[in-house]
Amino acid sequence: MRIILGVGGGIAAYKVASLLRLFTEAGHDVTVIPTEAATRFVGVATWEALSGHPVSNSVFDDVHTVNHVRLGHEADLIVVAPATADLRARAAAGQANDLLTNTLLMAGSCPVLMAPAMHTEMWQHAATQANVETLRSRGVTVLEPASGRLTGSDTGPGRLPDPEAIFAAALALAGAPAAPTTVPQPGTNEEPVAPPSARPLAGLTVTISAGGTREPLDPVRFLGNRSSGKQGVALAAAARDAGARVRLLAAHMDVPPPAGVETTKVETALELRAAALHAAADSDVIIMAAAVADFRPADVAGTKIKKRDDVADPVITLVRNPDILRELVEVRDAASRDQLIVGFAAETGDADGDVLDYAMAKLRRKACDLLVVNHVGQDRVFGEDTNSVVILSRAGSEPQEASGSKSDVAAAVIDRISAELSRVVPPA
């Protein structure tokens, strides 16, 4: 595969040398285009030595080959890392003042992935977020940054995702398998590190919902639930590591989204419904792990509801929210899509039945392919780092139990999804 690796002018450029080696050791032909600022952090000689190609950032080099047009036309994939605030702003504005931005404008048909890196305030600034939304609306995949230590003493979201995460996301976006090879870390004496090789979801798009929806009562208050989003985030990371292109539909979460996934933020059940139906159009797998409110207030007050002695206590009328999971199944079946849909059920038992009784009834109603069942309660599941689930199948397979950390449970769910897909899709 012919890859253009654009390098922005940030301190994280040094990490991109490892990403370049991952691509080349996997057998891909990589042309590096650094910005002028990027060469102040990592020199041209390094990029040429690791890529095996001449490196330039000027439209006036090799004019006879029309590089500013040819490179974008010939590329199978363009990856930009680090995608700095300045570089993304220029790309969103359609500027073409160096070889990299020219190449981005010429990338009419190949996928483009950008991996951001900048300080937290820069990432969260309204201008940056507007540029991200503009690029995503045009089909560019902009990953979420990782959280952690930044330049200096700052910490927060804004770190460049790990090279392995960018590598996995890029190959998933392009539908290319990863080569099971080992990669030495440039400039170190460390043992070689193996890039991810077991990628059963490579080339597939997986949409995952996570967190808890919030239904507004007034500008201050809302109806919500105890979901932390930890299990959904663990599922997104596991699907990413399995080679999938991952879209995370994030309701309220207590944890940040994982690096290397596309994230769409939602607040209410209706917003989640719209985002899920939109994402489902080209998803191979849908995992609805979010805790969706069953009801919402019929009326939302425009001002804060006051507690006053001279008026009666307010009466809040609730209406049902749509059944998003069932609707996704109905839309899939009506379109005869080859799509696997996984639901989650948080259940408690009562005098009329135990958890599995209610879960089996829900599986029949929802008609999804798999249902992952949590037994919830006070100090169980919500907000915890561990989980215990039972995976039920509409096809009638024996229930499968999984427990441990939420990452362990996520890995078991992704393994089960991979097994279900292998029964439907014959190996190439």
Description of the structure:
- By secondary structure, this protein is α/β, with parallel strands linked by helices.
- It has two domains: 173 residues, Rossmann fold (3-Layer(aba) Sandwich), CATH 3.40.50.1950; 220 residues, 3-Layer(aba) Sandwich (Rossmann fold), CATH 3.40.50.10300.
- Helices cover 33% and strands 22% of the residues.
- It has 13 helices and 19 strands.
- The strands form five sheets. Strands 12-11-8-13-16-17-18-19 form an eight-stranded mixed beta sheet, sandwiched between helices. It has a five-stranded parallel beta sheet with strand order 2-1-3-4-5, with helices on both faces. It has a two-stranded antiparallel sheet with strand order 6-7.
- A hairpin with a 6-residue loop joins β18 and β19.
- α1 packs across α8 and α9 packs across α13.
- It is globular and about 80 Å long.
What are the defining features of this structure?
Rossmann fold; alpha/beta; 2 domains; 8-stranded mixed sheet; 13 helices; 5-stranded parallel sheet; 428 residues; single chain
In short:
This protein has helices at residues 13-25, 44-51, 67-74, 85-93, 99-106, 120-124, 126-137, 163-174, 230-241, 269-280, 324-335, 355-366, 406-424, and strands spanning 2-7, 29-34, 77-83, 112-116, 141-142, 146-149, 155-159, 205-210, 215-216, 222-223, 245-250, 262-265, 285-288, 295-297, 318-320, 340-347, 370-375, 386-393, 400-405. With 428 residues, it is of the alpha/beta class.
